[in-house]
């Protein structure tokens, strides 16, 4: 998440590298290579590369450009709280987190209720954890049950997410934070706002 110089290139099937102008690109031996992301690209960069890929009829395996970038100004405290007033049907939630590669997290051993779902990222050294305010039974599935969501937090990778204090959002890489927020937003597409106390319909 530093401000080091960022350069973009495209690998070809023959092993050569091209820049945006179709010139050969030489990779510095000290360079750190990762997938391009909107976090590092200007609007001009994204338009240029979108046109470049279209000109060569390159079909990315997933939408790589125009990714949502979570504003750093909102990254306060230790959790993203925009999901705490959302209720999602259990079936939609289960299918969604499975498709996106999330895993079961903390389970109450006595009652058998799942209290969060997690997505480990060993490269970043962090695990994303989405709290389930309404626990989900791991013994009895109910597609139509309402599940209340809680905060999205991040804990050190490899540590029990229910025992470790969440790290400040300022310490979470912008790309990871942005992608995890985007995925939880996908999970809440079919969610409904939680009714205030005393105003349930």
Molecular shape: elongated
Structural class: alpha+beta
Query: Which series of helices and strands comes N to C?
Result: EEHEHEEEEHE
Q: Strand arrangement, largest sheet? A: 4-5-6-7-3-8
Determine the number of helices (DSSP H or I, runs of at least 4 residues): 3
Query: Biggest sheet, in brief?
Result: 6 strands, antiparallel
Roughly what percent helix?
Answer: 10-25%
Mean pLDDT: 85
- Poorly predicted segments: 197-201
Rg, please?
Answer: 20 Å
Strand tally: 8
Give the distance, in angstroms, between the N- and C-terminal Cα atoms. 45 Å
Share of residues in strands: 15-25%
Question: TL;DR?
Answer:
With 201 residues, the protein is an alpha+beta fold.
Your description of this structure?
With about 200 residues, the protein is α+β, with helices and mostly antiparallel strands. The protein has helices at about 45-55, 90-100, 175-185; strands spanning about 10, 15-20, 85-90, 105, 115-120, 125-135, 145-155, 190-195. The chain has a six-stranded antiparallel β-sheet with strand order 4-5-6-7-3-8. Strands 1-2 form a two-stranded antiparallel ribbon. Strand 1 and strand 2 form a beta hairpin. It is elongated and about 60 Å long.
């Amino acid at each position: 998440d530093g401000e080091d110089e960022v350069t973009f290139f495209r690998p070809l099937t023959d092993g050569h590298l091209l820049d945006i102008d179709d010139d050969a690109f030489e990779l510095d031996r000290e360079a750190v290579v990762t997938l391009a992301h909107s976090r590092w690209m200007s609007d001009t960069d994204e338009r240029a590369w979108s046109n470049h890929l279209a000109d060569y009829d390159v079909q990315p395996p997933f939408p790589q450009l125009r990714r949502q970038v979570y504003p750093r100004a909102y990254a306060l405290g230790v959790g993203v709280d925009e999901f705490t007033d959302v209720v999602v049907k259990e079936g939609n939630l289960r299918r969604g987190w499975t498709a996106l590669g999330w895993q079961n997290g903390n389970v109450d051993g006595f009652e058998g209720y799942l209290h969060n779902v997690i997505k480990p990222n060993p490269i970043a050294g962090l695990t994303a954890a989405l709290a389930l305010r309404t626990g989900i039974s791991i013994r009895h599935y109910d597609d139509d049950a309402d599940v209340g969501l809680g905060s999205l937090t991040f804990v050190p990778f490899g540590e029990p997410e229910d025992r470790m204090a969440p790290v400040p959002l300022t310490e979470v890489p912008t790309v990871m934070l942005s992608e995890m927020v985007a995925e939880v937003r996908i999970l809440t597409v079919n969610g409904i706002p939680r009714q205030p106390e005393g105003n349930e319909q």
